[in-house]
Amino acid sequence: MTNPGSAEYIEKQFSFGTVRRVCTHSESSDLDFDEHDVVLQSWMPGINFHPAGPSPEAKGLRRAQLGAVHAVLAYWSTGNHEPATVVLPTGTGKTETMLALLVEAQVQRLLVIVPSDALRTQLARKFETLGLLGGLGVLPDGAQCPSVGVITGRPKDLGELQTFVEACQIIISTPNALAAAAVELKSILFDACEALFFDEAHHVRASTWSQIRDSFSAKKVVQFTATPFREDGQHLQGRFVYVFPLREAQTDGVYGRINYESVYDLIDPDAAIAARATEVLNGDLNSGLDHLLMARCRSRADSERVHKKYRQISPEHHPVLLHSGIGKDGQRTAMSEVDARRSRIIVCVDMLGEGFDLAQLKIAALHDPKRSLAPTLQFIGRFARVADGTGDATVITARSERIFDRRLSRLYGEDSDWNLIVAELSDRAIVDQEKVSQFEQSFGSQATRVATRAISPKMSTVVYQTACTDWTPDGVLSLFNDEDILSLPLPINHADRVMWFVTRSRQIVPWIEGPGVENVAHTLFVLHWDCDQHLLFINHSSNEGANAEIAKAVVGDSAQLISGEQIFRAMGGVTRPIPTNVGVLDIYSRARRFSMYAGANVTDGFPAAEEATKVQTNLFTAGFRDGERVTVGVSLKGRVWSYLIARTLLDWVEWCRDTGSRLIDDSIDVAAVKRNFIRPEVLEAWPDEVVLGAEWPTELLMSPPISLAVRLENHSVPLTEIDLSAQSELSSSGDVRITLASDVASVQYDIILNKDGMRAQAVDEEATFTTSRNVHLGSDFLTRHCPIVLLGGDGIVSPPGILYRPNRDIPALAREEITPIEWNGIPLNRESRGEDRNPATVQGRSLDELQNDDWDFLIDDDGKGEIADLVALRVQDGTLQIVLVHCKFAHGGTVGARLIDLYELCGQAQKSSVWRRHPENMIRKLLARERHRISKGRATGFEVGNSSDLLRFLGEVPALHIDMTLILAQPGLSQTRASAAQLELLAATKTYVRETSSSRLRIWSSL
Q: How far apart are CA 988 and CA 968, in angstroms?
């Protein structure tokens, strides 16, 4: 018998864990592990379900705890064994809810799964004493504590495990501790347990977790979590039986207030965070609050650097460093300093996570904000715990353009009210999960719902127009033998009018004689009847089947397949469509009835299709719709498909509804859709055409690694500060020559194109591309991430050497679309304002023209790697208006009809049109470039507004409609004397930016 504080306990050690039983009643001096019936008998009266009152003396269960226990008990009373999900925000008392449910349900043996060692230990201590239930006055008189086993290692011996299980009433383990155990050993454990609780159940989709849950398919399973959503989009599965909103936890005062403060420092944000965080800590301590500060960093290297800053700023608080590299002893030493309050500042990396319960942690200095919603809300909850001697929590972080999750952009805004936004974000994410859950619940039985979650159909369908007032999904039973349908009764969601089923067919194989060998094929069918659009969608995994019979069976004789030319409406609204697969049918030739063209030879299908005897039967394209990239495939026989990913059956249903709306849209001109197809052409050499420019591949332009830098000669600069340009004429060897330039150095590469594709070769000196982990030679990096080359005449060449050019004639630009402005006193060969901000330049005059309007932000971004020479932004009536001005001097300083005056400008316009689809990334790049300017001691680029306001504005962009105008400022161009070639080039550029980004093009010229 041992006495830890006021509680006596007995303990038994095993090779893989420990069993303990605590006695808190002085009259029970003889303890044993085999008194489970006695313990259960002591719980027989059940929990006293009286609510806690507003005063500390009015003890009882909290509102959330009462609701959760009653909800689970009510759910269990239905006999349903599908896992029950309970959502309780941090601070509402999740552990005491588990304990109250354990006692009230009188669970004979319970398995509890937790994600970490720390949480396992913490939870075991609470289960051993029944937590706070005794002090709350809700336990029946004489209630005894259960024996609690903790599994810390892999069980190996069957007899030892059997003895351990028999000694336990509660067993607590992590999934990893059980994962390596033999199947027969796990069976002993799982078979002996009546119920299963998951703590921090957002992990439950991991295989080690789900395998345990599957072993309890016919038993009581409860999934407890504060955040029932995952960033990978996977549903937790199970039924949401109780969700206590975070806003209600705030109302009840169990989820504390969070004060959010943001700092802004372009040069050293870590120092700014540390300075403000220590100010808050000192203020809280002076107010008599027992608060601790945690500074969280991304990596060990970052934490060591940040730790030095805290030691410099606040040595009196003896900051400690906590990360996996200091070892267990070092971690224990650091935490002992904190426990003794000799240290009040903890600098850590991914430590003090789930299961760490220290209510005095009230100041969070986020030197590396979480990049996604789920872990952010989980992290915030640890600081929102309410405890005696503590006050409100404070979160401090630097505002940064590097927050890419739109939901978090609101959270990390300058004046964000976390007490409102955190609740809203949590509620919205939970609603999304409940939407999927409710969709699945409508399929009836538990077995059907579980099977439904496993279905992930391809985005593919055939579509029938219907005239019925209702559908009869069970009509498919007349088409198949019962033994051939493997999903009976039919899984039907009557509310959403969705059905799926699986069939099995057997065929004799042709390559062997005699019985016993046959092919067995399984086919998935999914049906959705959209009563609003009067459409029936059918998907089947084999893409072959009796669609007409199925349609007739479920919606009647009125079913009409949408096929032929009408199916091409699915491609409605797609601009610059590029086919990647084309099928051609020759209606006369028996020798070559059908041809399929894919990949490099896809264009062969188009000339064939234009011949009188040939018809396009299948077509798959990629293009743009409303400025966003899309993929659509169609077959004349009536099938539509896409490369979109359906994570759930509900995703497929919503895609079908969107596709169906186009198929019945009579305003879509099929002839126009087909006329706009671009025919890719495989090149083995560069065409003898003008090169307008080069641009980085989209993935590199939009999301470059934060640490990616380019070293030119002896200077290293971020990729955002590198200007990528191309010579308008091919080199003497017939290659495209590109230039990578910073403010102080430049290098040139030839992009060589032959039958093997595109590759880069240094003309002279090599650049190097470096990240935090790797160094790449410029020629290797540019071959792997080969730039896209923009050609005159509305064409582009993408790796590995494919020319994309619309098959059409573009009318020359009307002269009326060119706007002449005054250039009096402006040397036409002076382009940039430069560091001295010279107004007598093309850029200076363009700035004057912009300043005739009111702008929220007006930025001189001139320089290598620019967005544009001038960037203007403003919000009007819910629309973000973006104007990008590209300036170019007049060759020779005179007005003329020179194409060379437009080549680079038109290339810049085409390159910058991408920002219409990615305005947030554009603003992030503007901020990164401003940071670089300031760090180099150069003048700010802001003519109107400032970087702090622009960062604040970044969070508003997702809610705004985007409108973009590109302006080409070229005084060497004459409105009245522009040549036909100039007008054709401008027209091609105008068409490109309109089709790829829904943007407008304006031209400022001389008269």
A: 14
Pair 963, 993: CB distance under 8 Å: no
pLDDT at 944: 95
Cα separation, 881 vs 858, whole angstroms: 12
C-alpha to C-alpha distance for 642 and 459, rounded to whole angstroms: 5
The 10s digit of each residue's pLDDT in 695-743 is 888 777 766 776 788 999 888 888 878 889 999 899 999 999 999 998 8
555 CB contacts (<8 Å, ≥6 apart)? Answer: 464, 466, 468, 471, 472, 529, 536
Mean pLDDT of 963-969: 95
| Residue 562 banded pLDDT, cuts 50, 70, 90 | very high
Helix (H, G, I), strand (E, B) or coil at 992: helix
Across 529-544, average pLDDT: 86
The b-or-e profile of 549-580 (16+ CB within 10 A means b, else e) is: ebbbbbbbeebebbbeebbbbbbbbbbbbbbb
Compute CA 438 distance to the chain's CA centroid, rounded to the nearest angstrom: 23
b/e burial code for range 495-519 (CB count within 10 A of at least 16 → b): ebbbbbbbbeeeeeeeeeeeeeeee
- Structure tokens that stand for 583 in this block: 């099928």
* Straight-line distance from the first to the last Cα atom of the chain, in angstroms, rounded to the nearest whole number: 101
Q: Is the pLDDT of residue 7 over 70?
A: no
**Mean pLDDT score across all residues of the chain:** 84
Q: Is 220 helix (H, G, I), strand (E, B) or coil?
A: strand
Angle between the 649-663 and 418-441 helix axes, to the nearest 10 degrees? 90
Contact 132, 218 (CB under 8 A): no
pTM: 0.57
Contact 71, 79 (CB under 8 A): no
Distances from the Cα of 791 to the Cαs of 374, 520, 706, 989, in angstroms? 45, 54, 31, 10
Residues 6+ apart with CB under 8 A from 782: 749, 751, 760
SS3 label, residue 686: coil
- 3-state DSSP percent of the chain in helix, strand and coil, to 5: 35, 25, 40
Question: Hunting for tokens 């759910």 — which residue is that?
Answer: 75
Q: How far apart are CA 371 and CA 391, in angstroms?
A: 27
Q: Using an 8 Å Cβ cutoff, are 831 and 887 in contact?
A: yes
Task: Give residue 803's pLDDT.
Answer: 86
Confidence of residue 428 (pLDDT cuts 50, 70, 90): low
Q: Residue 102: its pLDDT value, please? A: 96
In this structure, what token pair is assigned to residue 550? 């199925």
For helices 183-192 and 158-167, what crossing angle results, to 10°? Answer: 20
C-alpha 775/C-alpha 768 separation (Å) is: 7
Residue 544 in tokens: 């072959």
Which tens digit of pLDDT belongs to each residue from 899-953? 888 988 998 998 898 898 888 889 988 998 998 899 888 999 999 999 988 988 8
Please report the DSSP string for 354-418 in residue order. TT---TTEEEEEESS--SSHHHHHHHHHHHSB--TT---EEEEEE--TT---HHHHHHTSTT--H
Better-scored residue on pLDDT, 538 or 250: 538
The DSSP 8-state label assigned to residue 892 in this structure reads G
In whole angstroms, give the CA distance from residue 870 to residue 109: 70
Weakest-pLDDT range from 281-295, 438-452, 674-688: 438-452
Write the CA distances from 997 to 464, 733, 990, integer angstroms.
34, 35, 11
- What's the pLDDT at 116? 85
**Is 60 exceeded by the pLDDT of residue 230?**
no
Q: Which residue has 């992290």 as its token pair?
A: 379
Asked if residue 526 lies in contact with residue 463, where contact means CB atoms within 8 angstroms, the answer is: no
- β-pair type (961-974, 1000-1006): parallel
